[in-house]
Amino acid sequence: MIQAVLSKGEHTLSGSGTLLDLCINHAIPLSSSCRGRAICGKCIVTIHEGQNQLPAPSELEESKLIQLKCPENTRLACQVHVDGETSHLKISTPYW
Ligand code: FES
Q1: Digit-coded pLDDT (tens) for 48-65
Q2: In testing the pocket of ligand 1, which one of 24, 30, 40, 67 has its CB within 8 Å of the most ligand atoms?
């Protein structure tokens, strides 16, 4: 179960794909201007719970997170792939 924590409450996201895909599929607004290529850095999400279930960032994602001076519990939603094995994940952005 993936929960997006918005100011209006929590939304459960189901399915598989990138976190960006899931947000878009569930009409949760998440910025993106590079179409998920780890260039713009606009899709940053904070992982509040479940980070240990996620694969480590790729070199490309890690490089962007370092460039943007992101804290450790942040990821690029366009680069994080989730599937049925992801049992509990809680995410938010500063603008939700
Ligand atoms: S959508 Fe641009 S970095 Fe994720």
Answers
A1: 999 998 989 999 999 999
A2: 40
